[in-house]
Amino acid sequence: MTTSIAVSGFIWNEELANAHAIQQHLLARESGVAAKADSSAVCRQAHAVGGDFYDFLSLPNDELGIAIGDVAGKGLGAALLAADLHATLRAEARRALSELASVIGNVNHHFHEASFEESYATLFYATFDPATRILRYINAGHNPPLVRRADGSMEWLETGGAPVGLFQAWQYTEDAVQLNRGDVLVAYTDGIVEAQDAFGEEWGAGRLVRIVEESSDETAAQINARIWKAVDRFAGRAGQRDDMTLLVLRAT
After folding, report:
1. CA–CA separation, 113 vs 95, rounded Å?
2. How far, in Å, CA of 167 to CA of 99, rounded?
C-alpha cells in the first residue's frame, strides 16, 4: 500500500509539472504582437497551475486583442476552468470581431453553462487598433486596469458588467479610450494588489499607482519588472498566497 501511494504521488507530481509547462506555454504569446504597441506580461500561479491567465490575440482585422482573467479558486480545478474560459474567449473574439459586448456575452453564457454553480471569473477584454490607437474594452468585474497618460494623468477602466459565470445572461457595456504615444496600460489580477507582508498588510493599488507614475520613460518590460520587484520585496518571507498576473502595454 505504501509503495502504491508513493508511485501514485510520483505520477501525480509529474502530471502537475506537465500541466504547469502546458499552461505557461499557452500564456507565452507576447512577442511581436502589434504595431505601435510595446507589451509585456507575466503570470505566476500560487501552485503548479492556477486560475489566472492573460492573452494577446492577433485578430484578422489587424487589431490586437488583450485579455486578462482570474477564475475564482486556486489549483487544478481553477486551471481547468481557466483553460476552458481562455479557449472560449479566443474563439469568440475571432468570430465577432467588432462586437465586444457579443464576445463577452457569449463567453459569459458558455462559462455559466460549463462550470459549477458557484464558479465565476473576472475578465478584462480589449481590442487595440494600431491605426487609430483606440482601445475598446469591457471590464467584467475585474480589478480596473490603469491607464497612465504621457502627461502623468491617470484613468481607471471600469466600464463593463458582472463577472462571467455569475448570471446566465448579462448585457455588457463597452467603452473606449484613446492611447496616444507614451500612454501605458497596466492590467493585473487581485493577487498583485492583495499581496500581503508578514503582518497581513496588503500591498494595495496606491503603491501600484506610485510605481507606474515613476516609470514614465520605461519600456513595458521594464515597468513590469519594476512592479514585480516591488511586490516581492513587500511580501518578503510571507511569500505568494494567490495567483498573480501583470500585463503592461505601452503605445509607441
Report:
1. 20
2. 20
- In the structure grid, which three cell numbers stand for residue 190, read together? 487581485
* Grid cell at residue 115: 462550470
Residue 247 has, within 13 A of its CA and on its CB side, a CA count of 28
Instruction: Over range 106-130, report the average pLDDT.
Output: 93
From the list 54, 124, 64, the residue with the least C-alpha distance to 251 is 64
Whole-number Å distance between alpha carbons of 98 and 95 = 9
List, in order, residues 6 or more apart from 105 with CB less than 8 Å away. 169, 170, 171, 172
Q: Which three cell numbers stand for residue 175?
A: 467603452
DSSP character at residue 144: P
Helices (H), 28-117: 75-95, 100-114
Cα radius of gyration (the chain)? 18
Instruction: Give residue-wise pLDDT tens across range 158-217.
Output: 999 999 999 999 999 999 999 999 999 999 999 999 999 999 999 999 999 999 999 888
Per residue in 218-229, pLDDT (tens digit) is: 999 999 999 999
Domain residue ranges in the chain: 2-251
How far apart CA 180 and CA 250 sit, in angstroms, is: 9
In CATH, the architecture of 2-251 is 4-Layer Sandwich (3.60)
pTM of the model: 0.89
CA distance 195 to 238: 9
CA–CA separation, 56 vs 183, rounded Å?
A: 18
